[in-house]
Amino acid sequence: MKEKTPHIAIIGAGLAGSVLSNRLTEAGFLVSIYDKSRGTGGRLSSARLNDTSADLGAPFFDIADPEFQTWLATQPTARLWQPKHISFSNKALTKPSVYVIEPRQSALTRALMEGSSFISQCRVGYIWPEKKDGEEQIILRDEQGKGLGSFDAAIVATPAPQAAPLLEAVPRFAKRASEIEPTINWVAVLQTNAHTSTAELITGEHPVFSRCIKDSAKPGRSGSDRSEVWFIEANTSWSTANKDRDSEAVFDCLKSSLFDLLNIDAEVISYRCHRWLYSRNASIDEGFLWDAAQRLGAAGDWLQGEGSSGAWRSANLLADQLIKDLQ
Ligand SMILES: Cc1cc2nc3c(=O)[nH]c(=O)nc-3n(C[C@H](O)[C@H](O)[C@H](O)COP(=O)(O)OP(=O)(O)OC[C@H]3O[C@@H](n4cnc5c(N)ncnc54)[C@H](O)[C@@H]3O)c2cc1C
């Protein structure tokens, strides 16, 4: 280890930022994580609903990537779940094996960030390399221009469109990020007084939905026994066509389609409807971005593989590189 402990700024407390933080704090680095949101998780965040909560982002982790699966199995709050699965045309399908985090998906990111400083509700607006006391440093400012400090390296772990302006100190990185076009997805989570028994995961062809998931059937979910919580995800073409509608109108449409599908007429106790502007994206499969001279890098699902396992892989690959270069 160099004489001075390296201090790394990470922008984004999603899966990539939190995995990177975990690896770097374990290697003895100081880590400060900035996020514009109140909580951690990014696209693994959850929404409060009356006396319970529901996953509003990625509802579970599929385990197609064996190394990601092995890692998940070691996480103390990860639970294997095999939801009862049917198609939108009511055909029984094989139960998939997926992982969920107890009591909510975002708890994984919070646990991984132990040992780092978390600065919430802080939107980073500017990152630039600077010489300070004869040493190369990188400085951060928030969107109002207020200084946030100087660091030995800054890592942008946000969706690509939000990363592009933060990577301008290395124009080729900013260009790579600006070329990514994420998909849009409307998602609603709702707590109802319904009691359905048919399915916990519904997938297939549907004019509105990509999938519907009974969130309250996941292992370790708390809340009233008298209610059911559903996660409903509109498909990309419907979401794109309805991108500019207000969230109440979108919710009414998603709720009616769900009630028709389940053949119920229930009371909605509580709900949240959210438009994910940067839901998912193809990846450029470069693993990560890192410029050792400018001390600026990036990790996330747009850099390696796709989805959660891509974010996890990208963060691990960048952690290996930073530990090699800065320790
Ligand atoms: C509805 C939905 C369903 C999904 N389903 C699946 C699935 O089934 N399987 C799967 O593998 N993947 C799924 N995904 C994708 C998966 O959630 C993401 O790939 C993964 O969580 C990305 O993690 P990340 O850390 O790269 O980015 P994010 O989770 O987006 O984290 C980035 C963080 O950066 C913060 N941020 C952005 N800009 C700034 C700024 N300027 N200053 C400070 N903070 C900033 C954001 O607030 C956010 O917290 C789904 C995503 C959504 C939205």
From TrEMBL:
Pfam family, one: NAD_binding_8
Domain of life: Bacteria
SUPFAM superfamilies documented for this protein: FAD/NAD(P)-binding domain (SSF51905)
Name assigned to this protein: FAD dependent oxidoreductase
